[in-house]
Amino acid sequence: MGRRILNSWIMCLCACLLLASTAGAVEPSAGTAEVSRGAFVDALYDAHVANGGTPVVSEGSAAPFRDVGSWSPYFEALCWAKASGIAGGYAGGAFRPSAPVTRQQAAVMLYRYAQTTDLPLEGGSSRDLSGYRDADTVPGWSREAVCWAVHNGLWYSGSAVELRPDAAVSQEELGVLTECLFQSGMAAVSLPAAPEGLTLELRQCSTTGATLLLKNETEAAFSYGAAYGLYRQVNGGWYEMNEEAASIAILYTLGPGESRELTLHWGDMEWAGVLPQGTYCVSKSGTLGDQPATVSATFAIR
C-alpha cells in the first residue's frame, strides 16, 4: 500500500474513531472522556468499512450477544466483531456495551483485528513488560495482547513505569492507539528548540486553521518553504499528524528584523482535516543563515 493511501486511511480512521466514540463516552468532557466498549467496536467497524473492509449484512441476523439486539446502535458493528472473532464478550453471553473499555480490553480487540487483517506487526514477549512495576497485574487472558501492544508502541498509560491495564481508554487515547495500529507503531517525536530570536506567535486558531506571526529577530536570514508540521499532544507526547514535506526549492526568505503573517488551513492537507478538541503544535522548518532551524507554536482547540 502506498504511503499516501496509508496516510489517508489513517486520518480517516482517526476521524471515524473520534466521532463515533463521542456517543459512547461515559464522561462528557472531551479528550479525557472514557470510551464505552460498544463505541470502541462501532468506531473500529466504521473505519474498517470506510477503508475498503467488507460490511456485514446484519438484517435478520441473530443477536450477537444477549444484551445487544437489533435495537442497539452497536448491533451491526458487534455482529461483525463477533463473527470476525474480534469481540468475545463475557461468560453468560453478555457484551456490556455501555461499560468503559479498558486498556487491556482494547489491546485484545486491536490484537485480534491485526491478526484478522494480517497487519505487519511483530509479536511481543514478557520481556517487553519488564520495565513496568505493575506488569504482574496483567492477567493471562490479555497478557499476549498487552505484550504485543507494548512491543509495537501501541500502549499509552500516561506513565513510564505503570501499565495501568484496568484503566479506561479515553477518546484521545483511542484515536492514537488505532492510528498507530495502521502505522505499524508510532513513537512520540521530539520537537527541536528554536534558535534565540526566531519565534512563531499564534494570532488565532480554530478547528479548520490558524494564523501565526513568524518573527526573525536574529542577524541572519531565515529561509523556509510552504510546508509545515502539525502535531497532537497525547499523554505528554507529541504525535505527528502530517508529514512536513521536504521543499525542492526555498520559496520564502525572512530577513533580519522582519516578520510575516502565516495563514494555515488544515483542509489543505490530504486528509482535509477538522481538528477535534485537544492540544496541538505547528512547526516551520528551514535554514537560518546556513544552519537548519525549526520554530514552533502550541495551541489548544476547546
UniProtKB/TrEMBL annotation:
Repeat among keywords: yes
Domain of life: Bacteria
Pfam family, one: Big_14
SLH domain ranges (all copies): 61-124
Repeat as UniProt keyword: yes
Keywords: Repeat, Signal
Signal sequence residues: 1-25
Protein name in UniProt: S-layer homology domain-containing protein
